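Second opinion, please. Please look over this fold, written as tokens:

===
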Amino acid sequence: MELKAFTDCTLDYLEQTFGLIPTLDNSLLDDWLVRPADISDFERQELLSFQEPLILNVLHWNEQELSLGFIGPMLTLARFTGPHFNLFANRLIKAVVNGIELFGKPDAFIASGFRAPRIPFFAFTEFKKDIDPSGDPAGQSLAAMLVGQTLNRNEGDAASRPIDPNLPIYGCYVNGRDWNFMILTGRTYCISADYSARTDDIFDIFRILKALKQIVTERTAA
């Protein structure tokens, strides 16, 4: 069996190998990006405190420094922990898709489970430094999303109600200051325009993260 790591995946490879089709518009992505979510005064001040070191350091931060100095605090502030899901990082996931085993450790992802990720999977994130990033972050994130989709469809969650195979998988990749949001539905995917965390877009980025938490909470509600 052929093995393929997420780190070796590009958008072109995924399209040619698995028949994934890019689209310019997706109503579910649009709904996610405009979904309202309140941002408190405290959260706004915290976001500005995260933004300052990003502006100062983004041109020379490596991926670990970017993760520790900015992305981690953003995800922590969004509080991706609930009764039936949690935020995980660098955990191995894999699945066989069209006879090829895709595998890797996403920088961060949201899945059911508390101490360890379970099925279903909801969203995946990849981080890259601003200058000379290694690999294709969009391809790596989409590969992880395809694995999450496959696991959801093939295995389901024995501890809860059956998973609707038509539910989307959400994603995000970060290139230094720029955030792009993604959605995978069936074999079609869509990527948002850039959101720059060095500008007032930081508030939109955080609102979109909080909206994702709302979506996941709704999908896991009893």
Observations:
- The longest strand covers residues 118-128.
- Residues 2-220 form one domain.
- DSSP finds six helices and eleven strands in the chain.
